[in-house]
Amino acid sequence: MYFQCWAVMSSNVPHERVFKASKSNNFYMGLLLLILFLSLLPVAYTIMSLPPSFDCGPFSGKKRMYEVIQETIELDFPLFIAKIFSYVANPGLIIPAILLMVLAIYYLNAVSEAYQRANAELKKKMQMVSTCPAKPCLKYRVLQV
């Protein structure tokens, strides 16, 4: 039992980077997000700009398709929820919110890169300290007269 414990403790050394596959996941998640965004563009363009046909079910008599959503919110929900949705759907709030999110992402990305550089520098310093020969401590050396 002691031999097995010693063998496991001496030969089973964990990898230096524990989550080395996590960097590749960010690439794939970014690629999936880009494809989702690109696939939503034609749908958003159709809903926002093209007028529906005059006999098209719930959209008949409307200038744009999204007017059905506004009408449903105004008629089916309580008045205060309709007011909240009308304030939230205001472009004066949506555009600054999107800009704020972009700036937050940029800031967090910059902080993350700075932390990565600091970690790399500390790692190099620790490796240099571990490879340097042991220097005698000058603080406790006794001077002889």
Task: Summarize the topology.
Layout: H1 2-11, H2 22-49, H3 67-76, H4 79-88, H5 91-131
Helix pairs in contact: 3-4
Task: Produce a short descriptive summary.
This is Transmembrane channel-like protein. This protein has 145 residues and is an all-alpha fold. The protein has one domain (2-11, 22-131).
Describe the structure in your own words.
The chain is mostly helical. It has one domain. Helices cover about 70% and strands about 0% of the residues. It is built from 5 helices and no strands. It has helices at about 1-10, 20-50, 65-75, 80-90, 90-130. Helix 3 (about 65-75) runs antiparallel to helix 4. The longest helix has about 40 residues, at about 90-130. It is elongated. It starts with a helix and ends in a 14-residue tail after the last helix. Keywords: Membrane, Transmembrane, Transmembrane helix. This is Transmembrane channel-like protein. GO terms for molecular function: mechanosensitive monoatomic ion channel activity; voltage-gated calcium channel activity.
